[in-house]
Specification:
Elements lengths: L1 H13 L3 H13 L3 H4 E7 L3 E6 L2 E5 L5 H11 L8 H5 L2 E3 L5 E11 L2 E14 L9 H9 L5 E6 L5 H13 L7 E4 L16 E4 L4 H11 L4 E4 L5 H9 L7 E6 L3 H6 L4 H5 L3 E7 L5 E4 L10 H33 L4 H6 L4 H5 L11 H8 L7 H12 L6 H48 L1
Parallel strand pairs: 7-11, 7-12, 8-9, 8-10, 10-11
Antiparallel strand pairs: 1-2, 1-6, 2-3, 4-5, 5-6, 12-13
Helix pairs in contact: 8-9, 12-17, 15-16, 16-17
Amino acid sequence: MSFHRTTTVLSALSALPDRLRREVERVRRSTASFDSSLREIRLHAERGCHLVFGARTAALPVILTEAELTAFVKGIAGGSLYAFGDCLCEGYLPLPGGSRAGIAGEFVCEGGKVVGIRRIGSVVIRVARAVPGAGEFAERVFRRSGCRLGLLIFSPPGCGKTTVLRDLALRLSTGPRPLRTAIVDCRGELSGDWYGRGACVDLLTGCGKGEGIAIATRTLSPDVILVDEIGGEDEVAAILSVEGGGVPIVATAHGSSLARLCSASPVSPLLRAGIFGAFIGIGDGFVQYEATLPETVPVGFLVPLGLKRRASRALSETEEFLTLLRRIKREIACFARPLPEICRTADLPALRAAGFFDALEGGDLLSAYRRALPALSLSPEAARLLDGFFSGAGAPLKSEELAACDRAISELSELLEHEKNERTVKVRLRSTLILTGGLLFLLLIV
């Protein structure tokens, strides 16, 4: 990690104007912890330059002209600003190794949208850093739910959200039982040689976050999707659209507190929908803490949130068991493979997270199901139905096995449809009752 960090710093320094680079190199030689503590290089046309080390900002005795700063930006863009037009319109340029250059100046707008930049006034290079162990706390919180519930990491800008997310991706995608980890990286801050050759990582770059989330869900069969700095309408809509897919989202967002995210933030619809089952905040000094939804959120928010989260998880698990039953029926009809072997080859993330497939090592489907049951959120009706099916699994005659599959598939499909309808009615009714109660309370006060 230290080698990668040094390489990243050197790549950021190599593109600087000569007289500025010499001054930075002088500071680097005289500062023992330069590579590990440098966070930003801030360049301002006609006003001076600064280095940021943690919470300390050091001024440099170099003043760049606007022409020098423009030439520097063209240099890091490979001589073609046009090729990075979309990035410039969003105010940044990607740098090697996951670093990023933020751009400020005079932008050109048409129809309320940025279409270009006319004059570059300042550049802020944010140097990517690898902090081993930064994602340990987040990993512990995420795995506590069996890797089935989403996780939101929030903090004000510059507190280390991306650093935590990068290390968390490494931890989830490596080890003895790695998770299939899809990373939607629009700004190039999570890409690069951070994860090593053994990581089970699929990187999606060059697309919007909303499109990347949708592509990953449809085509990559991930166990988890990681995305940095959500907040746009398309990103929120994409996450809401894949909610029922059973893939947890681990995301970061700008916010000083969970209360603010609930009340006045673009991500508040995701909190209402129960997308995230846990929340981690990052404070000063890179201190991480687990946050809980505040009691002062708007009336009607909390109860539907908890209800929907549990109901969504139960429906996802029921759908996966239904998929498993259909697979068993298809395999029995065409092949003569043992049932445990059929189940082990199924790609069902919620059941894997609950330990169902691990418990199959002994070859007993019923025992595997009952060991995994405490970690599942199935309704009592679905649990009893599946217990009955697995109790009779392995009938000696093929016709009997097929008949048992048909009965279970029919009953579970009917139950799933009923639970979906019931869930919709309950959420609406509970929300209506709470809102009505809140209004009555306000009338009594008035």
